[in-house]
Amino acid sequence: MPEINKVDQKQLSEWITGRHKYTLLFKASRDGCVATTFHSKCNNKGATVTVLLRNANAYSLDNKAFLFRLYQDGTFKPVNFPVTGAGNAMYDHQSYGPTFGGGHDLYTFNGTVAHDGTCYPLNGSTSFGTSYNMKGENSNSICNGNLKVTDLEVYMVEEIPNAPLENPWRRTPEWNLKFLEELKANIEHYKPLKELKIQQARILLVGQVGAGKSSFFNTINSIFRGYITSQACSGNAEHSLTTVYRTYQVRNGPSGKPMNFRLHDTRGLEADQGIDGHEISYIVDGHLPDRHQFNPSLPISPEIPGFITSPQLSDKIHCVAFVMDSSTVDVLPEKVLERIKSLQTRLNQKGSALDQSRQSMSYNDRGICFWRVFYSPIIQEVVDRVSQIMGLPRAHILPLKNYESEMELDDNVSTLALITLQQVLRFADDYMYNYLDLLEEGKLRQENIRE
Question: Domain TLDc spans what residues (predicted)?
Answer without folding.
Answer: 1-158
